[in-house]
Write a structure and sequence with these properties.
With 221 residues, this protein is of the alpha/beta class. The chain has helices spanning 7-12, 27-31, 46-49, 69-81, 92-100, 116-123, 138-142, 156-168, 170-184, 189-202, 208-217, and strands at residues 19-21, 37-39, 58-63, 86-88, 102-107, 127-130, 151-152. The strands form two sheets. It has a five-stranded parallel sheet with strand order 4-3-5-6-7, with helices on both faces. A two-stranded parallel sheet has the order 1-2. Helix 6 (116-123) links the parallel strand 5 and strand 6 (127-130). Helix 6 crosses helix 9 (170-184) and helix 10 packs antiparallel against helix 11. The longest helix is centred in the C-terminal third of the chain and has 15 residues, at 170-184. It is globular.
Length: 221
Amino acid sequence: DTHMGLDWDLYLIRFADIVFCAQKNAVESIKEINSQVFWLPLACDLKTHYQAGCELKYDIGFVGGIADGRRVRILKVLQEKYPGSYIGRAEKNEIAKIYSSSRIVVNIAINNDINMRFFEGMCSGALLLTDPIHNNGMEDLLSQAPDPFFVQYQDIDDLCIKIDFYLGNESERQTIASTGKAFAHGQTYHHRWLTIVDHLKANSKLSQSLVLYYVYNVSLF
């Protein structure tokens, strides 16, 4: 996952036969050192990130660090305007419950990255509101679903307008949230693992025994 810096990654990939990169915008830089590089987006896990039957007790859910300056500004406004929300850090085993108990999950990327929250928020059944991600694979994801499966906001004012609208229009919120959940359920770590296996099978540099080992371990997911 390269969104916070490439230097150490560019050193390590020299020793790999195949590289899978979570952020598409780093693929070309990696390719200069290792031609066998493929975009493999982050994902979600159905058993972990979707918890049925949770009471909707939060207007907004956001779990993550808030030290980033832009996040601090946005989240401060949200905390003041929407007090019935969960904003801050949480134990890993509580994140799914928080998102599944939220009407809206707000995503604030740190560096134009398609992060885990993007998939986990939709998987939970909440409506995802995210800032735009440019030239980093978002267009590829959008092409995989015919209907809107999340909502983008441009700035803090636009975010608040859209939060107010979807909190006041449950039917519209649930329609997009349901489409997002269905989309996310096709974007799991199991799906990513199958992609890895396909590339391993196609790579002539790797021994058949190694490929079979990885195929066998798909059953562990």
